[in-house]
Design brief:
320 residues; Rossmann fold; CBS-domain; 5-stranded parallel β-sheet; 15 helices
Amino acid sequence: MDKLLQYGRELLELELYEAHKLPQRLGKDFIKACQLILATKGKVVVSGIGKSGHIGKKIAASLASTGSPAFFMHPSEALHGDLGMVTANDVAILISYSGRAKEFSFILPILAAMNIPVIAITGGLDSPLAKSAQAVLDISIEKEACPMGLAPTSSSTNTLLMGDALAIAVMRARGFKEEDFARSHPAGSLGAKLLNHVKDVMRTGDLIPKVPQTATVLEAMLELSRTGVGLVAVCNDNNKIIGVFTDGDLRRLLLKNGTLQDCIMDVMTSPGYRVPENWKAVEALKLFNDHNITAAPVVNSEGELVGALNIHDLHQAGIS
């Protein structure tokens, strides 16, 4: 078991040693690479084969999700039709540690003929790939962490880190924000928080707990039980909320020896909290948390009752 720990630690130490040299290599070529991506009117085409291809897919995905439209193109498939996906407005990121991937020897002349700028991520600074590129990102290493020096380890890590540096530098230069990120991740928790508005998750129609101002406590209690929201909105003839009646109000009434025939106006909480329908759902959650409440009626810009929302509705929508 001690040997296993030793092997793992040796690998991590070697990869970290190689990676720690990367920041000092960023210079004019890194700036040029970022500028090429920022200036392109098309997409970023990322290509690489073997382990470089696997890392390339991740780099393309990172670029796409942070504001730089991108896709991965397998070099072999490119030579059998997929080059048709590349347009004159694109920029290419080609990944090869040696810089001598055979497939690129066919692809590079075509990209040059189309005036497509090339960003090379390579350790072969004198390779054909590096010489053909407008920007060269140096990922060279002294030693792979693999004890046989065969399996890409340190070089793959350097490639991944360089790709992340490129994607995030471009993202920050674009002023890319959380809301922008959420639009490309609508099913994730961040998307749920930043994209959903109260009107998207609130209860409407017959699911809205509501009684008129002339109602009795019994009528409000029945409405409270029917909807299960946790409160009832008390409204005037213009559908404006004048107060709310909650589970807590009912308990307090009974402790004071009140009756179910009491007028709701005498026992409701007024004015009570309410949530605008155009608020982001995460803002409603903050209101709930800040004031230790679990539900609120929803109003439109005119202050009219249009919905109801409770903490369970927010949690079911992935907002927590």
